[in-house]
Design a protein that fits this description.
- Helix content is about 40%, strand content about 25%.
- With about 230 residues, it is an alpha+beta fold.
- The relative contact order is 0.16.
Length: about 230
């Protein structure tokens, strides 16, 4: 797939980041869910999924997709609820005319430690973009440090890549330092809430249902995109 330049560069940053994590190994994903092909209004849809895990993270998921001229990147690092770690997430939606949406966040499944909160505050305030976007109604799962923007030019696209890299640097260091701790049950509930809120994204669901079916879309969202932690 030939993707928008921002998605190509951001994919590289994300892959380099998770490749640095100790003990990383691929998760089993059925071939039919690794490479997905479909059509919508005579436009071809192609989805590529990569999934991994490592100590501290139950699932690292990077999805890149293309529907006609529409390019999408979706990435989530889901923590093992035995570890006191937030959820890392990043998404980009782009066309040849420009990037319509770009978001990055460390979403809490408990209270941020004062140290982590201060680091995130410093990063989020050091990156400023002209067009901040409003979060959707279901977006209460995101933190106050979330960056949800519409980059207006290549300079802001590069800034967004730098922002994602900064969030990932903090996150991967936290993963490397994390040890199992009490509070798993509450973190599990918070992660379930995160997954359920994400499934309310009608834009994602609408495209998939038009390309495939409601049954297939439910399965994809429940098993691949936002599978519930056991």
């Amino acid at each position: 797939m030939n993707h928008h330049d921002l998605i190509v560069k951001l994919s590289t940053v994300i892959r380099c980041s998770y490749s640095s994590l100790p003990g990383i190994k691929p998760l089993n994903l059925s071939p039919e869910m690794s490479e997905i092909y479909g059509t919508m209004d005579e436009e071809k849809l192609q989805i590529h999924n990569e999934v991994y895990k490592c100590p501290g993270l139950r699932k690292i998921h990077l999805e890149t997709a293309k529907l006609g001229s529409l390019d999408v990147l979706h990435c989530v690092f889901f923590p093992d609820s035995n570890y006191d770690l937030p959820i890392f997430g990043a998404d980009v939606v782009a066309t040849p005319r420009g990037v319509g949406a770009a978001i990055v966040d460390l979403s809490p499944v408990g209270d941020f430690s004062p140290t982590l909160n201060e680091k995130l505050k410093n990063i989020s305030t050091s990156f400023n973009f002209k067009e901040e976007r409003e979060l959707p109604e279901w977006g209460s799962i995101f933190s106050s440090h979330c960056k949800f923007i519409r980059p207006i030019n290549k300079v802001e696209e590069s800034q967004f890549i730098n922002a994602v890299e900064s969030y990932l640097t903090i996150y991967t260091l936290a993963v490397m330092d994390a040890k199992p701790t009490e509070g798993a049950e509450e973190r599990l509930k918070a992660q379930l809430h995160y997954c359920n809120q994400q499934k309310k994204n009608d834009k994602t669901r609408g495209i998939l249902e038009r390309c495939f079916s409601k049954e297939w879309t439910d399965r994809y969202m429940d098993e691949v995109l936002f599978d519930e932690p056991k």
